[in-house]
From TrEMBL:
Residues where heme c 2 binds: 207, 210-211
Keyword tags: Cell membrane, Electron transport, Heme, Iron, Membrane, Metal-binding, Repeat, Signal, Transmembrane, Transmembrane helix, Transport
Annotated GO CC locations: plasma membrane
Stated name of the protein: C-type cytochrome
Binding, heme c 3: 342, 345-346
Length: 434
């Protein structure tokens, strides 16, 4: 045997040993014993056990990934289109045949925090990389709430993954490389409010799963935490306190309003996945928890991220326009399409008619030269419900060509962001697939 083959053999043996050690650790370690958690996920004023579980399930946004459009809540079936295939959210109602009704406390905790379910390793589309920080008490409170719901008999669709991604055992290697299975530890140098915000943002709200860039292994890059990423075609903005490309220029009131209602006056309105997060999760947090999130987000390292999306609060075209007419009449394709399809709600000055949610000035989406979220909202529309208040924009993807969508998006970026849009029909065609 040559030296090269010997080294390869020893490498394979070393990897196999590491996998065995990891599997034994996950399977055999005692999961019941755990030190007291430094943070209780639900507010102290909520004392009923099921009410606490419901609050935590909402803070963790469980319903968003485990409910398909038009389907029963928590019954699964939502498709996640990933670069390597399609994964479906599972049924987490207490049905014993198709749901989680047979899971013990330890099995449920292991699935949520360790990423190991009845079928083996879970794929990181399930954000156990963030949920790992949850306390056992909070995880079991969520379980108690889910088990109080009516069971829904709905079989889980089979994942559509080619070889080797359909081999769950292979996730053991991924976990060895990228999974930090640790509980939340309070920062003694920070305030109680800051630490509560940190727990809500990192463990429960798992903000980093959407807003943090990922590496080739689909793992979050810790050094770029919350600095912005593209998810399902949407641009999940930089939410670090960077003064230009992040939220550093936002006021406390704007940030709190955005988290609680999906709209910050003079700034962005939530759409797409972020609108879903506000609708299903953030709007239900008590004001003190919203403030804790604001405190935490304002006091993390400021990262530049994608500086091309820095918001221009005084775009020349919008400021010079009136409610009824643009600053300069053009025969441009994008302006004509905007006049035909968009101006009735958004107005030429971008302030929005009747609803402030339709405002476009100050929006991160309007200031993205690549127009990623603008394209997505034109193609797919968006909606949000806050209490009894409902806002929506219809989809134009079926009625407009790739060239037309690109022209509208570029006009929006120019008129309301003061930048030159770079959206191409080819980009629109690719985003249609997401």
């Amino acid at each position: 045997m040559t030296g090269v083959w010997k080294r390869l053999l020893w490498l394979l043996i070393a990897v196999a040993v590491l996998v065995v050690v990891y599997v034994l650790y996950v399977v055999l370690r005692p999961v019941g014993a755990e030190p007291a958690a430094p943070i209780a996920g639900a507010p102290a004023q909520i004392t009923d056990p099921l009410a606490r579980g419901e609050y935590l399930a909402r803070a963790a946004d469980c319903v968003a990934c485990h409910t398909q459009p038009g389907g029963q809540p928590f019954a699964g079936g939502l498709a996640f289109k990933l670069p390597f295939g399609v994964i479906y959210g599972t049924n987490i109602t207490p049905d014993r045949e198709t749901g989680i009704g047979n899971l013990s406390d330890d099995q449920f905790v292991r699935a949520v925090r360790d990423g190991v379910g009845p079928e083996g390793n879970l794929y990181p589309a399930m954000p156990y990389t963030s949920y790992a920080a949850l306390s056992r008490e909070d995880v079991l409170a969520i379980k108690a709430y889910l088990f109080s719901l009516a069971p829904v008999k709905q079989p889980n669709p089979s994942n559509e993954l080619p070889f080797p991604f359909n081999q769950r055992w292979g996730m053991s290697f991924w976990k060895l490389a990228f999974f930090d299975n640790r509980r939340f530890a309070a920062n003694p140098t920070k305030s109680e409010e800051w630490n509560r915000g940190a727990y809500l943002a990192t463990a429960l709200g798992h903000c980093g799963e959407c807003h943090t860039p990922r590496n080739l292994g689909f793992a979050m890059k810790p050094g770029q935490y919350l600095s912005g990423e593209v998810i399902q075609g949407w641009y999940a903005a930089n939410i670090t306190p960077h003064p230009q490309s992040g939220i550093g220029g936002w006021s406390q009131e704007q940030l709190a309003a955005y988290l609680a209602t999906g709209h910050a006056p003079g700034r962005s309105s939530a759409s797409g996945p972020m609108a879903e997060a506000v609708e299903h999760s953030l709007q239900y947090l008590v004001p003190a928890d919203i403030q804790a999130l604001v405190t935490y987000l304002r006091d993390i390292p400021a990262l530049a991220g994608d500086t091309s999306v820095a918001v221009n609060l005084k775009p020349e075209g919008a400021l010079a326009a009136s409610v009824v007419a643009p600053a300069q009449q053009q025969d441009a394709f994008g302006q004509r399409l905007f006049a035909q399809n968009c101006v009735g709600c958004h107005l030429w000055n971008g302030q929005g008619r009747q609803s402030s949610y339709a405002s476009l000035v100050g929006s991160t989406a309007s200031n993205d030269p690549q127009g990623r979220s603008v394209v997505q909202v034109i193609l797919n529309g968006t909606r949000i419900s806050i209490g009894d208040h409902h806002e929506s924009m219809p989809a134009f993807g079926q009625s407009h060509s790739d060239e037309e969508v690109a022209a509208i998006a570029n006009y929006v970026v120019t008129q309301f962001g003061g930048k030159k849009g770079s959206v191409t029909p080819g980009q629109v065609a690719e985003q249609r697939k997401q």
